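TICKET: design request
STATUS: open
ATTACHED STRUCTURE:
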């Protein structure tokens, strides 16, 4: 992990307070586990701090997430963006959803090591969205580097309560992606509330797509993975 002084300066630039020890332990676990399984291509100290940690928490300064919100991270992978968000917003009630058991084993080690509570769900997003235990049970959904918005709408919106918010963390081309995915968002009961362009302290461009759940998702969504694979995204 980068030295404490660099970490604190980085987080001061993005306007977030972060506990250095917790983030340092997360970085150490990520680097160690990545030697035996593919979690991320970014493993150097500077890259983890900037492109994983800062990238994950900066959206909290752009959009207000309700206190004690029940949040689900769809296709969480190595825990981005939700675990760093949880480290700076301990009040969030977090669920980590992923289709690969090994990733969840890593995340269990992270949660135990840094002392945070999170529910770990081993399932495909399409299956979770049809499961009454998860369908329309969350106030916030997040996703980073999983799929295009046209697919993410179908994965994430059925999980949200009406009035909930989906935060899609995207790269510099997020505005075009929002335009391409607008129909899928509407079909699944949502509307694009805002598209916010910004930069990391490194200068890398990012986009936060904010989607509001305005009505219940039709029962036919999400489709099964087989139907999605055959017909493609909603357009």
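STATUS: resolved
RESOLUTION: sequence designed for all positions
ATTACHED SEQUENCE:
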């Amino acid at each position: 992990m980068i030295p404490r002084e660099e970490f604190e300066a980085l987080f001061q630039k993005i306007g977030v307070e972060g506990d250095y020890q917790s983030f340092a332990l997360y970085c150490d676990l990520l680097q160690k586990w990545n030697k035996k399984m593919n979690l991320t291509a970014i493993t150097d100290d500077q890259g983890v701090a900037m492109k994983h940690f800062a990238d994950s928490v900066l959206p909290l300064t752009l959009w207000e997430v309700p206190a004690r919100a029940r949040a689900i991270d769809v296709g969480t992978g190595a825990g981005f963006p939700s675990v760093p968000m949880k480290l700076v917003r301990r009040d969030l009630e977090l669920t980590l959803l992923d289709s690969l058991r090994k990733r969840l084993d890593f995340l269990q080690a992270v949660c135990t090591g840094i002392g945070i509570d999170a529910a770990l769900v081993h399932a495909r997003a399409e299956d979770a969205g049809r499961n009454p235990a998860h369908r329309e049970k969350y106030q916030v959904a997040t996703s980073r580097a999983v799929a295009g918005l046209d697919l993410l709408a179908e994965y994430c919106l059925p999980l949200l309560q009406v009035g909930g918010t989906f935060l899609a963390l995207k790269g510099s081309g997020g505005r075009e992606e929002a335009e391409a995915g607008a129909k899928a968002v509407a079909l699944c009961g949502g509307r694009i509330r805002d598209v916010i362009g910004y930069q990391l302290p490194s200068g890398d461009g990012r986009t936060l797509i904010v989607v509001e759940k305005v009505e219940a998702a039709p029962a036919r969504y999400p489709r099964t993975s087989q139907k999605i694979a055959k017909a493609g995204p909603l357009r």
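CLOSING REMARK: The chain has a mean pLDDT of 96. The first helix runs from residue 4 to 14.
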